[in-house]
Amino acid sequence: MVGNDLVVDFHSASSTNWRPGIPNYPIKLYFERLKLWYGVTDNAEAQSGVLEAGRLQGVPQKIALRLRLPRPVAAGGSYDIGDEALIRLSQAQLTDPATGTIVQEYFPSGLQRLCQALRSI
Which branch of life, at top level (predicted)? Predict the structure, then answer.
């Protein structure tokens, strides 16, 4: 319990809930708890973004549901939106060993991009 609002403790299958305005539960603490949860969860990377979006409330959940991520050019370009963005796996940067040229840029996972978007509120 944080302040007068219930904050559900996380366990390996589900992280804690969060919305702005919960007394004594700023976004910084939410991210610290999210990191702890991510370290113990058995969920696949693709599931983590969707599960986390489901734990958010209010504006943060709207941000998650409207998340819009550009697809790599090699995957046809365009965008992944909402659930498609949230299930996105991270992709490592690929470099041509012969030339040192970057063949594919690093792409963060849907959960990583969601966290970046939440930091802006």
Answer: Eukaryota
